[in-house]
């Protein structure tokens, strides 16, 4: 805990599919929001609504008492925290929250470096997709100190509806891996069920009317399955980000000698999508692997 009493200005770094909506909710809630993104034009809409642009993560950090990051890959997280003009070097008496899906070990490394400077750190990856971000209904899985969690909870409540402290630093990321492991086998099942429907001559849309209300229902079937049926592979969640998550989960499982064959199979199918140049599809694009 940094001894902070109130959070007035929030730094937000990473304004992609998820960060764009999330930063917008904080702005709408009345906070001063300081923003930075690799591609500057993605900040234009937020700046027009009152956000303040800074030229580096470090400049955002220097002006903010809470700094949230929502970038793409662990290498991006490394860069914004530890790179030239990074957050750690410039933040002052701040709480840092990484909401990127990243590795638990990197979360622990950031926390250790942050604490040397009297900064607090929480890992808080999310689930709920682009729709959850847009509707401020994310599930937020947090790792860190209880006091820091309580301090930022009112702000996280502007972004999500299920916000749970899972344990110490890194446990938010481990919880997110549980989520991705479930999704890995589920989305394969959705693609397989719908390709079976097509092959036997059923109308997959009508099949979805039946099975979408039964025990198989859920986001992967009802939302992404519906997109598979109409051939809409536009990204809500990029295949290349999912592969990043599957790699982290497989590496963690290997370290604990946990055998997860469904996860390994899903990784091989999504790798196949990369071979076909489909890594910037949404994850529902896996359906193409099953089409004749
Ligand atoms: P995205 O659209 O690619 O957004 C990431 C943003 O971070 C991009 O705007 C990117 O800049 C920016 N960025 C990357 N490296 C940066 C750096 N070094 N400095 C400044 N900005 C940097 O991805 P997303 O879908 O929002 O996902 C963000 C994270 O949330 C990922 O880890 C993903 O796995 C996770 N996630 C996504 C979903 C989903 O459904 N989309 C759901 C849950 C979790 P550019 O604009 O230049 O590319």
Structure description:
With 292 residues, the chain is an alpha/beta fold. It has two domains: 9-167, NAD(P)-binding Rossmann-like Domain (Rossmann fold, 3-Layer(aba) Sandwich); 174-290, N-(1-d-carboxylethyl)-l-norvaline Dehydrogenase, domain 2 (Orthogonal Bundle). Helices cover 52% and strands 14% of the residues. The chain has helices spanning 17-28, 44-48, 57-62, 74-82, 87-90, 104-116, 129-134, 146-156, 171-200, 204-211, 219-230, 239-255, 261-275, 287-290; strands at residues 9-13, 32-36, 52-53, 66-69, 95-98, 120-123, 126-127, 138-143, 160-167. The strands form two sheets. The chain has a six-stranded parallel β-sheet, sandwiched between helices. The radius of gyration is 20 Å and the shape is globular. 45% of the residues are buried. Mean pLDDT is 97; it is low at 1-5. NADP nicotinamide-adenine-dinucleotide phosphate is lined by residues 13-19, 37-39, 42, 70-72, 76, 79-80, 100-101, 126-127, 129-130, 236-237, 241.
Summary, kept brief:
The protein is of the alpha/beta class and 292 residues long. The protein contains 14 helices and 9 strands.
Structural class call reads alpha/beta
Overall geometric form: globular
- The radius of gyration is 20 Å
Reported CATH architecture of the largest domain: 3-Layer(aba) Sandwich
Which sequence of strands runs across the widest sheet?
A: 3-2-1-4-5-6
Please indicate the count of domains.
2
